[in-house]
C-alpha cells in the first residue's frame, strides 16, 4: 500500500492516552433530551410531532426538508414536552428550534425491520435506507450521508476511502469504535462500497492507533477492504488531505472528491450505515470522547442524541479543577461552548474541558514573517500574507492569495510563535466575503427587478402611445369621412 | 469563563521571545570565544551595544506613544545589537557601538514600524552605515590574544588609545592590498592564512565573526531546534564556494579558493544568523534558498572585484531589497491548483 506525502501539517501533542484506555461505556438514560431540528448541513428538518405525543425509540419525529437535509428520530421512548427553542451547541449558545423529549425510562424501540442479506439490496435501496435512518457524516462535517452516496453513484466513484485518521488531539472515539466494533464497521464499509459500486476500498488509519489497525485488519480479512497505515500528522483526517495521502491525487480547487472519482466517509458513519441497513436502527446515538485536563475520568461513551453535555461531564466524575475552556469537538477545529445545557448532536465527537495550560493562549505579538505558518499549511497558502491583506481590509487581495482554498484547519495558528489568531482572520474574512456575495446577489436581483419594471413601464407607455395614435388616426379618418360625406351631401343638394 | 474564543484551542509551546532567546543561546559560544580572544575591550563593546540598543528602543517607542515593556521583552532589539557587536572590530571605540546600535534599532527598525516591518536587516544596515561613515575605525583590526589589562581596555574603548599590534589587516583586506601591489595570491597568503586558525577563529577579524566552527555549531543547533531551516545557509555557502572554486581552478593565483572564502570575514555569521532573519528574508523555502544563494554570490563578487575587502553586509542589504520581488514570484502551489493558480482538471481516470 503506497502512502503519498502530506505537505505541511503539524504535530500537536496527542493527549489521546487520557481517554483511550477503557472501552466504550453507555451513559445512563437521561431524563430529558433536547433534539435540535438541524444537526446537519442544509435545511432544518420539519417536526412531525406535537406537544404531548408519546413516541417510541427510533420513531421519525422530524423529516428532511428539501434536497440537502436529514431526518431526526426519537433517541428514546417518551413524551414530547416542548417544541421550542433551546441553547444550541454553538459558541453563541443562542437558542435554536428544538424538540424536548421526556424519557419514560423504558427505552422501547419502534418496530424495526432487520435485513437478512443486506448485500442483496439494490444500490438505490441502500441510499434510501441511509436517508431514512437520518445518517450524517459523523466525522464532523455533518453532510447528509445518503446525499453523498447518491451524488457519488451518479458521478461514478472508483475509490472509496474510509477515514479512520482521527488526527485531532484528545479525541479517541473513532479509535475505540474501530477496536470494538470493527466487524460491523467493515460490513458498513462494504455496504457503502456496493451502494456506489466502488472498485477500490481503502481505510486510512494513523499509525498511532496500532490496536485499531489490528482489529480492522482482522475484520477486513478476506474482503476487498484494504487497511492503509498513514503517518500521524494533523490534519490527516481532513478529507482533502487523506485523499492526497492515499491516492496521490488532489481534489481540484472548488471541486468535490467525486470529481476525481473518490468518496470519503468516516469510520463511525460506516458503523451507523451498518446499524441502519442490517438492523434497521436509525441514528439515535453516537460515541463521544469526554476528555481534557479538567475532567476527572476521561472516557468514551455511547450517548443518545440530545443528551445535555452536563450529564456527560457528570458521568466523567466532573472536574478536577475549574475548566478554562469548554470545547465541543477536538481542540484544533472544535467550538467553544459556554452553557453545559447544550445537547450532544450527531456531529459531536468530543466534549473537552481544557485547562489554561493546555490551551497555551497568549496575547498576540507582531508578525516577524518567520513563515512557520507557510511551512505548516497543508494547502500551500501564505497565511501571513493573507492575514496582512485582511488586516488592511483588502479581501480581494486575500482571495487572490487563496483565501477560498483555506480549510480552516488551524495549523497556522497552532504554530505561530507570535500567537496571531490567523485562522480566526480567515474565517472572519470568509464570513465577510459570503455576506458580500449575498449582498451582491441581492443587489443584482433588485437591479434586475428595477430594470424589468422600467422596461415594463416603457412598454406600457409605448403601447399607450400607439393606442392613442391609433385612436387619433381612427378619429381623423372618421372626421375626414364625415367631412367628405358632408361635402358629398352638399354637392348632391346643390 | 473567558470570552468566546476561536479555534484552535491548543498552541505549540513557542513564542517570539523564546525564538530570540534560542538564537542568543546559539550565538553564545562564538561570543564567549571572541571575549577570550580579544579580552575586556570586546566585552565592553558588546555590553555598550546592548545597552544603547535597549535605551534607544525604549526612547523611540515611548516617543511613539506605544508600550515600552513588550517591545523590549521580545528580545529582538538585544539580538540586533548583539549581531552588530559581533561584526565590529573588537577594539573599536565606544561611540561606534553606541551610534551603530542606535541607528540599528531606531532607523533600521522602529522607524519602519517596529518588529516585522523593516525591509533591511537592522544590524547589517548599521554596520554598512558605520563602514561608510567611519572607514578608519571600522577597519582597524587587532591581533588576537593581545589581552590588555582592565585599565588598558578602558583606554582602548573609551579614549580610543591604540595598543601595539592593533593595526593589522584581516585576511581579505590583506589580499586586496597585496593584489593592488601586484602580488600574487600564493605569496599574499603566506603567513596570513592558516586553515586551522581560520576554522577555530584565532585570526584577525571582527569580534565574533572569526570562529567559523563555533558559529557553525550554533547554526546547526538552530536548525536542530527548527528555528531556521538549512536552505538559506547552505545556499549562501554554495553561492560563495561554487564561483570561488570555479575561478580558483581557472586562475589559482588571482582567485582565492573556496576554503579561504568560507572561513573568512563574516560569512558563517551571515549564513546562519543574518540571512536567516525572518523579517527580511523571503517566505518560502525555495525563495529563501534563492535569497541565500544571491547573498553568497554577491558576497563573492564584492570580495573579488568590489572596492571593499568584505562583502557580506552589502550583499545582505542588496538581497533584502530583492526579498519582496522574490516573494512576488515564488509562491507555494496551492492544493488543487496548478503552479499558476488555475484549478486542476477534473480527472476520473
Automatic annotation (TrEMBL), chain A:
<keyword id="KW-1003">Cell membrane</keyword>
<dbReference type="Pfam" id="PF12838">
    <property type="entry name" value="Fer4_7"/>
</dbReference>
<feature type="binding site">
    <location>
        <position position="373"/>
    </location>
    <ligand>
        <name>[4Fe-4S] cluster 1</name>
    </ligand>
</feature>
<dbReference type="InterPro" id="IPR017896">
    <property type="entry name" value="4Fe4S_Fe-S-bd"/>
</dbReference>
<dbReference type="GO" id="GO:0009055">
    <property type="term" value="F:electron transfer activity"/>
</dbReference>
<feature type="domain" description="4Fe-4S ferredoxin-type">
    <location>
        <begin position="358"/>
        <end position="387"/>
    </location>
</feature>
<keyword id="KW-0411">Iron-sulfur</keyword>
<keyword id="KW-0472">Membrane</keyword>
<dbReference type="InterPro" id="IPR011538">
    <property type="entry name" value="Nuo51_FMN-bd"/>
</dbReference>
<dbReference type="GO" id="GO:0022900">
    <property type="term" value="P:electron transport chain"/>
</dbReference>
<dbReference type="InterPro" id="IPR010208">
    <property type="entry name" value="Ion_transpt_RnfC/RsxC"/>
</dbReference>
<feature type="binding site">
    <location>
        <position position="406"/>
    </location>
    <ligand>
        <name>[4Fe-4S] cluster 2</name>
    </ligand>
</feature>
<protein>
    <recommendedName>
        <fullName>Ion-translocating oxidoreductase complex subunit C</fullName>
        <ecNumber>7.-.-.-</ecNumber>
    </recommendedName>
</protein>
<feature type="domain" description="4Fe-4S ferredoxin-type">
    <location>
        <begin position="397"/>
        <end position="426"/>
    </location>
</feature>
<dbReference type="GO" id="GO:0051539">
    <property type="term" value="F:4 iron, 4 sulfur cluster binding"/>
</dbReference>
<dbReference type="Pfam" id="PF13375">
    <property type="entry name" value="RnfC_N"/>
</dbReference>
<dbReference type="InterPro" id="IPR026902">
    <property type="entry name" value="RnfC_N"/>
</dbReference>
<dbReference type="InterPro" id="IPR017900">
    <property type="entry name" value="4Fe4S_Fe_S_CS"/>
</dbReference>
<dbReference type="GO" id="GO:0046872">
    <property type="term" value="F:metal ion binding"/>
</dbReference>
<feature type="binding site">
    <location>
        <position position="412"/>
    </location>
    <ligand>
        <name>[4Fe-4S] cluster 2</name>
    </ligand>
</feature>
<dbReference type="GO" id="GO:0005886">
    <property type="term" value="C:plasma membrane"/>
</dbReference>
<feature type="binding site">
    <location>
        <position position="416"/>
    </location>
    <ligand>
        <name>[4Fe-4S] cluster 1</name>
    </ligand>
</feature>
Automatic annotation (TrEMBL), chain B:
<dbReference type="GO" id="GO:0022900">
    <property type="term" value="P:electron transport chain"/>
</dbReference>
<keyword id="KW-0813">Transport</keyword>
<keyword id="KW-0288">FMN</keyword>
<dbReference type="Pfam" id="PF03116">
    <property type="entry name" value="NQR2_RnfD_RnfE"/>
</dbReference>
<feature type="transmembrane region" description="Helical">
    <location>
        <begin position="70"/>
        <end position="88"/>
    </location>
</feature>
<keyword id="KW-1003">Cell membrane</keyword>
<comment type="function">
    <text>Part of a membrane-bound complex that couples electron transfer with translocation of ions across the membrane.</text>
</comment>
<feature type="transmembrane region" description="Helical">
    <location>
        <begin position="204"/>
        <end position="223"/>
    </location>
</feature>
<feature type="transmembrane region" description="Helical">
    <location>
        <begin position="94"/>
        <end position="112"/>
    </location>
</feature>
<feature type="transmembrane region" description="Helical">
    <location>
        <begin position="287"/>
        <end position="306"/>
    </location>
</feature>
<dbReference type="GO" id="GO:0055085">
    <property type="term" value="P:transmembrane transport"/>
</dbReference>
<keyword id="KW-0285">Flavoprotein</keyword>
<feature type="transmembrane region" description="Helical">
    <location>
        <begin position="45"/>
        <end position="63"/>
    </location>
</feature>
<keyword id="KW-0812">Transmembrane</keyword>
<comment type="similarity">
    <text>Belongs to the NqrB/RnfD family.</text>
</comment>
<keyword id="KW-1278">Translocase</keyword>
<feature type="transmembrane region" description="Helical">
    <location>
        <begin position="21"/>
        <end position="39"/>
    </location>
</feature>
<dbReference type="InterPro" id="IPR011303">
    <property type="entry name" value="RnfD_bac"/>
</dbReference>
<dbReference type="InterPro" id="IPR004338">
    <property type="entry name" value="NqrB/RnfD"/>
</dbReference>
<protein>
    <recommendedName>
        <fullName>Ion-translocating oxidoreductase complex subunit D</fullName>
        <ecNumber>7.-.-.-</ecNumber>
    </recommendedName>
</protein>
<keyword id="KW-1133">Transmembrane helix</keyword>
<feature type="transmembrane region" description="Helical">
    <location>
        <begin position="256"/>
        <end position="275"/>
    </location>
</feature>
